[in-house]
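QUALITY CONTROL LOG
STEP: pairwise intake check
CHECKER ROLE: data steward
CRITERIA: each record must contain a sequence immediately followed by its structure tokens, with no blank fields

ENTRY 1 OF 2
RESULT FIELD BELOW
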Amino acid sequence: MSHTYDYTGIEARWQGIWEQRDTFRALNPGDEGFDGGKPKYYVVDMFPYPSGVGLHVGHPLGYIATDIVARYKRMTGHNVLHPMGYDAFGLPAEQFAVEHGVHPKITTDKNIANMTRQLKRLGLSYDWDRCVETTDPGYYKWTQWIFLRLYKSWFDPVAQKARPISELVQALEAGDYDIGADGSLVADTAGGALDTLGGVEPGARKWTELAPDQQARLLDEYRLAYLAEVPVNWCPALGTVLANEEVTNEGKSDRGNHAVYKRPMKQWMLRITAYCERLADDLGMVDWPEPIKLMQRNWIGRSEGAEVHFPLAFGSAESSEDVITVFTTRPDTLFGATYMVLAPEHPLVESLTTDEQRQAVNDYQKQAATRSDIDRQAETKQKTGVFTGAYALNPVDNDKVPIWVADYVMMGYGTGAIMAVPAHDQRDFDFAKQFGLEIKPVVLPTQDWMKSHAPEGCDKEDAHDLMAHYVAAADTFDAAFGGMGAGINSENAEVSLNGKLTPEAKDAMIGWLKQRGFGKGTIQYRLRDWLFSRQRYWGEPFPILHAPDGHIVPVPEEDLPVALPEMEDFKPSASDDPDAPPQTPLSRAPESWKYVEVDGVKYTRELNTMPQWAGSCWYYLRYLDAGNDERFVGKEAERYWMGDNGLDLYVGGAEHAVLHLLYSRFWHKVLFDLGHVGTAEPFGRLYNQGYIQAYAYTDKRGVYIDAEKVQEEDGKFTAGGEPVSREFGKMGKSLKNAVSPDEVCEQYGCDTLRLYEMYLGPLDQSKVWSTRDIVGVHRFLQRLWRNFVDEETGELLVVSDKADESLKRKLHKTIKRVTDSMDAMAFNVAIAALIELNNELVGIKTIPREVAENMIPLLAPSAPHICEEIWKRMGHDDSISTTDWPTHDPAMLIEDTAEYPVQVNGKLRGKVTVPTDADDAAIEAAARGDENVAAHMDGKTVRKVIVIKGRLINIVVG
């Protein structure tokens, strides 16, 4: 009977034992057997979407890494929580269901079952009892509960935290605040003076003076979850609103390539902008890669500058309706503002446009609605725009400036309007050149800049002439000067910026604007409030009721969850008409679900659903206490596992660097402010794994073809007899180059797959998959097996004999190297060290137990099945995952001897081993005594002997 390495039987057996024994179950405080004396370690993968095609070998890269960490931490004495779940709502599942006529729950459950099977086949040590699915009503009950926390809260700008909206009502009823003319809160001081929180002018009213519907509308202006009419990406063919990330640069839906239009719609919004400052500042609290922090800060986009009010030429500045407010980071350039631009969606466009220009403006607005935000902002795109026929007044000199509409200005940043300073902004410069608008310089560039950009015929060596030419004709230079410098052409009777450097000029202008009531210094953020509605069926229902008179009533918390209704027709109402009113799938829900009667009043449920992002914002908290029916997470479990800094390790792709992390941090901070969680940040340490890349192939049309159908001969590639082109790409369905882990596990075993993926290179770097190269790692495991088990008899080859000094030193060096590599997540280095140690065992008939008892635990996190089997054969009844991690003896790292390469005239001729304390004479004598070295010295004169201590010996002969 053969006793060769039977990975199929070994892996199936140990996966069954782990499941039967519940080996990787994590205990919570209060559970029987919980040991609170151990340190905790909470490690989480960004959970997957259960795709119908299942996993390819690129997906488990991060999962295997976190599993190695989890197993290592258990062996180093930690209580480890390592869970898994599924982000299962969203458009892809709904679209697949629509296309195939199958309910999304059926396909989603099937996909989850398949992916769970694949993950278990990889030997991942998840606590499967804690598995969550965002589509489970028991889960999204608490997603709805968190939404109600947002709806019932406001952000206190003084305390800089979320507080219950009921506390704002109490403050209003107590007269702590009055309400300004524009709805801003005004603190009513003891002396009766008004200190405006929002910069509003006096003219405030008391809370008690407002009618009930006015009071309700005021509170809605401050809730963290609110309804608003906003411009959205509307895809009539899909019948839903799309996030910016779901729209291509060409203004098409990324799923189906359908036309997408900008149109205003009433949507649920989350006031994430209230947290801009904290979201940026608190990045200093977490251990994340610096590029990810930078991406977050850039997305938040903090800018210091000024708000400036431009009166309209046909009105006065006394009414807010008669001004256009812009935000600028360069108030020092206000004297150079020669025109204004409004975004096509700006609400003032309709009222400002003259009758003569209305048709042109309307046509332009329709055209702009078909372009994506990325396309509109592309630097290389030719600038387009239309004059509205209206003018505003520049507040510094009362000059009339024309008001244009152009799609390079976005409603999503600032105020949706800009003051155009073409001499000092390249986009404005290009626009002005194209449409013949005035270019007025107000900041003097450096001499080097003027030399580089001056027109032909200008004396570039005469500094005075060059400056005069720029001041008189900046439009003849080939670019805008966007840097800092001294002010020119910038004075009126009350303020002069001439000669002032940019920082001083900014302060002077902001002071003048505030004094004259034309503006103020302010901070703007690029981040916009989170659009939270989707016109879909397959998503979390909102726990909201709409009364006949239009006011909103939250569903009582005891009535949660609001479950999705059973519907046969869940298709969105597709249309070719971009102006067609949206009809959500839930508008066709049974009336018994759609309508709710309370105290004789018939309410309508909210008929939109939440976006896929909702469930993924907080799943790491539900893992902590997944079976809790009374709370979204138990307090004791949350405080223990989240500790002081949140997750100990969060691993996922860099593609989630911005939105998922921002959204999760926002929800977590609201829960923290309201006292529901104990940490200010959810993810203490973040690690981004790289990607698995693979060869992809395209035919002569540029269409990707199945990589498995490609044949190679003499360095050329063909498919079906036709030549194809080869390229590298991220492994996946779209490039048709995916390799299933099922196939690899079947052919080589999952221990081989785990080792190979980790051995490919540093975890945070992308690497190339090659099925042919996996054989080398498989041979390592086969050799390991033969070192420990006699393949003919099945006898264990581990004996109680002591290891010799050399092997013992190698063992302790390996322990040190592997331990250091585990702590650094340098798993490729750890595996390389173990391969070297295994090679040392080849040729040894039996393995000393002291070597075996240390080596097998070192390998166990990476290749757990084969290690469990050998460990069991060595006489251990408990799982190897519960044994202690080996420790090295520092004395064993100190070498008694050193090996020297010996060169003769610079060429390697031999190696000698000498005591580490040998002097140069002894080292030279050893080198001369080497047989091969002596042969190359024979008959020659030794000119010089160079001994570099601890490194090499070079003998120069002639």
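ENTRY 2 OF 2
RESULT FIELD BELOW
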Amino acid sequence: MASRLLSYKILFFIGIALALGAAFACGSSDEDDTVSAAPTPDIGALVRESVSAAISEAGTQPQGPSAAELQKLVETAVMSLSADQLSAQDVKSIVDAAVASQSQGATPAEVEAAIRSATSAQLSAADVQKIVEASVATSQGPTAAEIQRLVQSAVVSATAGQLSAADVKSIVDAAVASQVQGATAAEDEASIRAASENQLSAAEVQKIVDASLMATEEALMATEQAVTEVARTAERAQRAAEAAAQEAAAAAGRPQIKAATGGEFFSYKYDGPRPTTFQEAPILAELVRQGELPPLMERLPVEEDIRVVNVPEIGEFGGTYRITSNGLGGHEANLEQWVKRDGDGIAWYDFVGYFELSDDGRTYTMRLRDGLKWSDGVPLTMDQIRFAWEEVNLNKELNPRLGGMYEDLVSGNEVEFNIIDDLHFSLTYDSPNYALMTNRADRRGHFCGVCWFVADQYMKQFHPDHANAADLAKAITESGAENWTGLFSGKTNMHTNPEHPSIAPFQLDWWSDSRIHFVRNPYFFQVDPAGNQLPYVDAFTKIKVESRDVAVFRTMAGETDAYTRAFQLGDLPLLQANAENGGYQVFLWPSTGGNDVGLHMNMTYNTDPEIGKWIRTADFRKALSLGINREQINEVMFHGLGTIQAWIPHPETPYYPGAQWAGVDISHDPVTANRILDGLGLTSKDSEGYRLRADGMGPLTLSIAFPNDESAKIAPMVQQMWRDIGIKLALDSTSVYYQIMREDTGYMALHTDFSAYHADPWMIGWNRVTPVTTSAQIAAAIGLYFQTQGAEGMAPGPNSAFMPAAPPNNYAADPSGSLMMLQNIYVEGRKLPRFSPERVELGKQIFQTNVEEKYTLGTIGFTATRRGVMVNRKNFRNVPELHIRDKYGFWTETYYFENGIGNFEN
């Protein structure tokens, strides 16, 4: 009997929570549909607390309040309602007053009149009725009729109007009957399923059953979590219903991903007729004539394996591609990966080799281009691929574990390497992995680490299984390395070691502290549609100057042919004003990731438990978001070019979740932000208006870390904005902002490098939208646990030091369960084809969850900041007007000078 009574109470609490949720959703009069209120995760617990406390206190009072007093109580609670939501404190006050009225003698009519008077026109009659019905039940538990009414309201809310009234009645009748008659969970599920006539999925039925049959305190916590999930589902359904109208509104103000001059992404995939004759650069033809190089056709692969690339224009040979910058390095300009991205960042093509994936998604079969050669003329063979895998990748001194994309996420086993024949090898996983060949960081041939091929004709002298011991020891000493593994890893870097052969378009010639210089690779395997061996230019050189400002001014004088890394969007007016004199043009290369300036929060930080508690509180993060004036940031920092939105990718990308997610909690609304913070109990302030800590240790001061880029100008703006909501913000400018987040010694960082690679959450293992590595930064210790497969980091399980409390089987720093859910989605997504409907839905859910939880506060997207301002000399051709943001572009081998004369030579 006690168990059944507890079940009745659980249903009672579900009804109250969902009815209240419907009341503040339906009662909104706000016409700004870009802002939606998220459900309060702790309403279930709050209602339980409030009902119990109010009834207990009322039982000790000699006399209940009069109708007038009751009206005053309710008025006080409800008058603070905004047009779109109730705060947690509002809900508590309403419930306290309503329950007290029942136990002290006020009638339901008096309660309704009081609420209607207090809320004026903000709530409809239906909204009031829901509050009243949920609030005036007796303290002894609801009757069967009341259960029926409350559960019916809950089901209607959960299914977002997808079931008819008759359907709902049948489901409710079945659920109530099972409670009254003591039916088992299985019988209850069967009756509900029959009543719904298969209109509810198994998962939806299970939610109702789980919420209806709880019988222990632990089950009650699970019920409250189910209530939150049902409310979230209802909110998502409502957003989806409004998406079509919002899409049209958003499209009017959202710039498409185009260059300033218009145009589309150029595709480098070539599908036309293959060339039948082949030509080489004059500088190479002369070396052939002098007998220093073999003829062209002896340097290229077999004819059918020569790679043909599409180009905007057939180019001309000659000239040196010059860049003036405040740093060195030419990695992206000299890619040598097995596959290579198109300029849109979405499509991938065969490059060094080919691949096929088995139907079950477990085995990749790779084929090497036949006749491929290194820049020193040595053939790239299967022996060098075997050396790379068996003696480098799987050498436990060099690689104690492969990690990342080379470990199975289900079994934890490393990928299995097998040689098939002279041209083919395979990589096999225990479970499907569809993300390997579209993962940006895991297909390289150099920088061991994990290499797919190694120039063993050079590298064996640094490997103890092949080198003379004395010679190796001498080389270690001369290099300054600590051991052979440090020496070996350094020697594989073809961007700092000119002795290392190249398979890329360029070969490193020499470098110094102020300059790096590459020359064309005479054995490069790619040609244009006319049969011209690439690259077009003879050399690539990069000159380092003392500062970014100097790099900008020398670029304006014409000393850069094509580059983005040195420029910021704030330079745009100056660059454009001097474009004519400098003989260059400016293109904007935005990222499709959708969050060019983000504010990251680390859920596992707990060095200061009070700060940790607030960072883990969803409503606190929401208040911080509402306290940011994104319009001001966009206008001041980005000339109004960006799109103000929550963190979602561009509409043209596969995992775009819909326009209804772009505007969630991004409007500048300090009034609502202040009310939320008050509702959280942060009401005491110091003489300057800053909110005080609960432990009496002064103002609640947050600290934000950021690098010295645009972030250094944005952080003080946020500091002033949050002053208006009583939050004190300390600024910490540091180049290691990411490191303190990864190490759990920091909890908040602002920077401009969120968008890159994030249109596809599976493109990089260190993505910042799922906590699968420490680099995600939204939950460093949880990411470490996943990354090390449980060897380090935060394991699931309770920990009273972390508040708010999380469900018992979850991570202690994950009170909503969303971080664990994101990890599970990441694992499941890797098992699915990239553009399958199932994976697309999972990708959308990743962004939806991040928008709801606000682990990162999205601000502005598609601005072309951070490697997105391309300055291009007009006589340097084939540089695309539109490209995913990058330092150079992925296909620099296709760029050429008019008449073959470079600017460096003039």
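INTAKE CHECK: passed for both entries
DESCRIPTIVE NOTE, ENTRY 2: The CA atoms of residues 172 and 653 lie 42 Å apart.
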